[in-house]
Automatic annotation (TrEMBL):
<comment type="similarity">
    <text>Belongs to the universal ribosomal protein uL18 family.</text>
</comment>
<keyword id="KW-0687">Ribonucleoprotein</keyword>
<dbReference type="GO" id="GO:0005840">
    <property type="term" value="C:ribosome"/>
</dbReference>
<dbReference type="InterPro" id="IPR005484">
    <property type="entry name" value="Ribosomal_uL18_bac/plant/anim"/>
</dbReference>
<protein>
    <submittedName>
        <fullName>Uncharacterized protein</fullName>
    </submittedName>
</protein>
<keyword id="KW-0689">Ribosomal protein</keyword>
<dbReference type="GO" id="GO:1990904">
    <property type="term" value="C:ribonucleoprotein complex"/>
</dbReference>
Amino acid sequence: MSLKRPIRPCPQFIDISHPETKNAIIRSRNQNAILTSEFQTGNSHHPKILPAAAVMAATATPQTAAHLLRLVLSCRQITAQVTCPINHSIIAMASSSEQEFAKEYKAKLNRFPRSKFYWDSNIASRVGHKIGIRLREIGISGVRIDSQEELSRPIYYRKMLGPFFDSVKRTEIAVEDAEGLIFLG
């Protein structure tokens, strides 16, 4: 009785039949990074195997709008976080609870009559500027937002978020799906 061992590709080749790898290649193709037809070197009889260098080049190219920008809003603070689409980890974050905003927060906290919100459109704009700078530092040129989530926010939050998205765009970060949002104010 002979046991057949599965045929494994050489270590310099990567099997793209795995869903995450396939999605990374498809996203890269959509962004004009590489095409699988360019990499017919050595293993052209097996269409699901690409050279490892090609896969690494495809996944390392700067993606213009694959990262998700999420806003966490409360009456006390605004937090912007950018997550990686592959493993959903946070890669950049800015918040109004950082040390830079402590002076304004204490001033609003100690005033009488008490304020309902401890952040406004000016602080939202500064948080947007900070997240834009942090994204540029790590080499991300674009993000996307969930427009349904943004449209479902109460109107008093949406009024204050217009300057946030404007300041992100001013730092030369493309925000996909922000065109459909109507910000009042």
